[in-house]
Amino acid sequence: MKINMGSTDRGLRLLAAAILVGLYFSGVLSGTLGIVGLVIAAVFTLTTLIGFCPLYTLLGMNTCSRTAKR
């Protein structure tokens, strides 16, 4: 699996995940919308940790400045 996410992309995803989790636990997001937000936060966190986004592969995108294998 090749890394297709750059460091800026990974940082923004992690920030978005933290914001979504914060909104959920502060009560701003609740119910179904809150659960959807947590699922999106989990996906963002997972893709950030592994550095690979399957959707980028389907769209032919690569935000990584260099191509590396893991």
Automatic annotation (TrEMBL):
Keywords annotated in UniProt: Membrane, Transmembrane, Transmembrane helix
Lineage: Bacteria, Pseudomonadati, Bacteroidota, Cytophagia, Cytophagales
Superkingdom classification of source: Bacteria
Transmembrane segments: 12-29, 35-59
Pfam families: YgaP-like_TM
Domain Inner membrane protein YgaP-like transmembrane residue range list: 1-66
Descriptive protein name: Inner membrane protein YgaP-like transmembrane domain-containing protein
